[in-house]
């Protein structure tokens, strides 16, 4: 049984290796529940994956093995503490690429075992979901839009550990659609920022692209058709000029933002009907695609018209990082929720295990 110190800050080391960022961070949680980042080290692997045009799982796992120890050492140094002062190690145990997850989980177990620290297995999606508690001290309930390279979901965060999924994608994740669009237009990795940059010089109105799922009662998403529509338009223009690419990017980004905003509007209606009158109406956006300016502007309009306050953590805490993992670990630790050394890495780990699959789910290789 791990005793949780009540009279001083709880210090948690976070480790994140679920995809293509190797990250470690130290976060403090004060006795009043407020969080503070003491260090936050992220090393991206784009260079190793670039020539393949996408993330190669085995390369990602090897890159984590090579640098995780060094990244953890740097996080501790920058925080100005050593392992002896830590209260817990929190590690992303899923969902994600299994090779990378194993590297992080094994390392976390070793540190916890040798130092006698509490171990907390963190769901990567929960880490994104709770980030706003670290950055703004916002407490549940709130509506969460999670848009990353692997996930696109709308959830009601009722409490730490209690999530209700309202909507999910039936095919590609939004970040994946950005990445694939970038690839087919010959833009580099990472795709999302490349599309956003190109779109700045483009005219969105030049191409008519679909707004997937518009008006559907359930707030699910679909982006595969949109991406295919971009491909058809691009093929009809070959060879593509720089302006064609910019216009296609602007049209894609606008269509994606409008589709997402429509789905969020629907989720707001559901949340409003479900939560009682004391519901304060907060919309939180997390995941890498939250960095996209056009999406944020579109969501700000939807939020304002529905009486919601919009919360978007700073971009560095929206994309994958270990501060969010440490924070989710600190929140769990504060509730006495720790894990044993027998925890397993989980490639799939839904936040809401009771959610019914979306109609059409799996048809096009969708992720949970
Ligand atoms: O949350 P994240 O860092 O990693 C995952 O858990 O997937 O999200 C990465 C995704 C990538 O697909 C990337 O292209 C996308 O977020 N992304 C963006 C932008 N910045 C990152 N998409 C659109 N616009 C951006 N500015
Ligand atoms: Zn993520």
What can you tell me about this protein's structure?
It contains 11 helices and 10 strands. The radius of gyration is 20 Å and the shape is globular. It has a 5-stranded mixed beta sheet, with helices on both faces. It has helices at residues 46-50, 57-79, 98-115, 124-136, 174-184, 191-199, 224-235, 242-274, 293-306, 315-318, 323-334; strands at residues 10-16, 21-29, 35-44, 88-94, 118-123, 142-147, 152-159, 162-168, 282-286, 309-311. It is of the alpha/beta class and 368 residues long. Helices cover 42% and strands 18% of the residues. Residues 363-368 have low confidence and may be disordered. 5'-O-[(R)-(carboxyoxy)(hydroxy)phosphoryl]adenosine binds next to helix 5 and helix 6.
Question: Which key terms come to mind for this protein?
Answer:
single chain, 368 residues, alpha/beta, 5-stranded mixed β-sheet, 11 helices, 10 strands, binds 5'-O-[(R)-(carboxyoxy)(hydroxy)phosphoryl]adenosine, binds zinc ion
Give the SSE map:
Layout: E1 10-16, E2 21-29, E3 35-44, H1 46-50, H2 57-79, E4 88-94, H3 98-115, E5 118-123, H4 124-136, E6 142-147, E7 152-159, E8 162-168, H5 174-184, H6 191-199, H7 224-235, H8 242-274, E9 282-286, H9 293-306, E10 309-311, H10 315-318, H11 323-334
Parallel strand pairs: 1-4, 4-5, 6-9, 9-10
Antiparallel strand pairs: 1-2, 2-3, 6-7, 7-8
The structure holds 5'-O-[(R)-(carboxyoxy)(hydroxy)phosphoryl]adenosine and zinc ion.
